[in-house]
Design goal:
Layout: H1 6-25, H2 28-42, E1 44-52, E2 55-61, E3 66-68, E4 82-91, H3 92-97, H4 103-114, H5 116-138, E5 153-165, E6 170-179, E7 183-189, H6 190-194, E8 201-205, H7 218-245, E9 248-250, H8 276-279, E10 280-282, H9 291-306, H10 310-313, H11 323-362, E11 367-372, E12 378-383, H12 385-388, H13 401-421, H14 426-439, H15 444-456
Antiparallel strand pairs: 1-2, 1-8, 3-4, 4-5, 5-6, 6-7, 9-10, 11-12
Helix pairs in contact: 7-9, 13-14, 14-15
Length: 469
């Protein structure tokens, strides 16, 4: 929180607990893995934050489904004049049951689907839906909705487009929902539709470009070489199989010899009328002796193109590798990881801001959360909007786990220095102990209880080293 009052601090606790609920409810740890995998495979990933069923939800969206203004600033999606989320496949029954869509638009959609062009378009939609499921499966997502085969699938496009408002004399972003590229189901300013006046999307890339929203991913630089390696691998398997299987030429004796049961199979026995040496000759298949060397060469090309050190790949270093070489490898790896981490952390910071604005502008009643305490009991507490929507607002802070552990270690060392310098200062010692328990993740109530119990104990004189005399 930006405020310093007690109400601000209690509001911060409530907001953090609501975020923890979203983290568990939306399985952000799993979606984060998919988010990183998409960046590696396709160069850029998109996360869509939205309000549904009284809570904030998030989806990692396939970049194939995003159509965006090519003149957009890659570091600010809100500079795009249009942003389209395509290939949203929804059953017709859900569209007809949606009260947000106009009745006239629903009737137009039904008439369109019954037309000849609509029937052909619906078949294309079904094919596109199956292709999307294949892409999701390759990314490791298996929790998509499995709709009934007899349900009519409708393709929706959710478009965020700027329109000029004559009354306000400025461009205003609208949310437009289009069905089958033909029927407009919904069209309202984004502020009225979502409660926010900016895009509920975040994006990040491992290697962003200044003038291109679609940078190359790690997989793009190795995809061609990987296809060649797959081809070589397949050829080597086929070559080995054919050599073990055995293939033969046979003499047809100018068409007079036509074997009726010459069926190719392993260890087959084939009868011939005459000397087999004069009629059959085995096909000589030379082994592909250089396959492994070529594949090793191509593998080295891939490792060079992704610029990864053996340490990053998890390989065992040579026994004679010097300590200086190890430190250089680690330094180079850390530098590259820091570049990617900056883009990654910035995306999550923006996600936190969008999450807070969505929950602030769409919550009108109380929010009830449950949490298991240190004593094993489950405690429930309800929050009103006035408890956590403080005027000062909040800042979102993102920390990597490795960085947090490193910072905690530094903080502990600082606290130990303070305790050694202010041994006889009870205020400094109390603040230092409180800070130690905060780093351990204890709640304010638990910390107060511990410090009160310690104050109730009789004090003992201590020496310069901090030990009891």
């Amino acid at each position: 929180t930006r405020g310093r009052g007690l109400h601000d601090k209690r509001g911060e606790i409530a907001v953090n607990e609501m975020w923890n609920f979203t983290y568990d409810d939306q399985k952000l740890d799993l979606k984060d893995n998919i988010d990183k995998k998409v960046v590696v495979l396709q160069g850029r990933s998109f996360k869509y934050w939205f309000w549904q069923d009284g809570k904030v939800k998030v989806d990692v969206v396939d970049p194939y489904d995003i159509d965006i203004d090519t003149r957009v600033n890659p570091f600010d999606l809100n500079t795009a004049s249009y942003f389209n989320h395509k290939n949203i496949f929804v059953p017709l029954r859900k569209i007809l049951a949606n009260k947000s869509y106009s009745a006239d638009a629903k009737n137009q959609l039904k008439i369109y689907l019954q037309s000849r062009y609509g029937i052909l378009r619906s078949r294309e939609t079904d094919q596109e839906y199956q292709q999307k499921l294949e892409r999701l499966t390759e990314l490791g997502a298996h929790n998509y909705d499995d709709y009934a085969s007899n349900d009519v699938m409708v393709e929706l496009t959710r478009s965020y487009k700027l329109f000029f408002d004559e009354a306000k004399k400025k461009f205003v972003r609208h949310l437009v929902v289009i069905a089958m590229d033909s029927v407009i189901l919904y069209n309202k300013p984004i502020k009225d539709a979502l409660g926010i006046d900016f895009l509920p999307w975040t994006t990040w890339a491992s290697d962003p470009d200044l003038n291109d929203i679609w940078p190359d991913g790690v997989a793009d630089s190795v995809r061609t070489i990987n296809k060649v390696i797959n081809m070589y691998f397949s050829q080597d398997l086929e070559n080995r199989s054919y050599r073990n299987f055995g293939m033969y030429f046979f003499n047809t004796l100018n068409g007079q010899f036509q074997p009726q049961a010459f069926e190719a199979k392993p260890f087959g026995m084939y009868g011939v009328p005459g000397n087999p040496d004069e009629i059959l000759k085995q096909v000589k298949i030379e082994p592909l002796g250089d396959t492994m060397n070529v594949m090793e060469y191509l593998k080295n090309l891939i490792q060079s193109s992704v610029a990864q050190t053996p340490t990053e790949r998890g390989e065992q270093l040579k026994s004679r590798t010097t300590l200086g070489e190890i430190e250089l490898n680690l330094a180079a790896s850390k530098g590259r990881n820091e570049v990617v981490a900056k883009q990654y952390q910035s995306s999550w910071e923006e996600s936190g801001k969008i999450w807070y604005e969505l929950i602030k502008n769409n919550t009108f009643g109380q929010i009830t959360l449950s949490k298991r305490g240190t004593d094993g009991e489950v405690y429930t507490k309800s929050f009103s909007k006035s408890d956590w929507a403080v005027p000062a607002g909040y800042d979102c802070k993102v920390e990597m786990q490795s960085e947090r552990e490193q910072n905690d270690d530094i903080e502990f060392k600082k606290i130990q220095y303070v305790k050694s310098q202010y041994v006889n200062n009870p205020v400094a010692m109390k603040l230092a102990k409180r800070k130690e328990l905060e780093i351990l993740g204890w709640t304010p109530e638990e910390i107060d209880e511990v410090l009160q119990a310690e104050e109730a104990q009789p004090t003992m004189p201590v020496g310069p080293d901090g030990q009891p005399v």
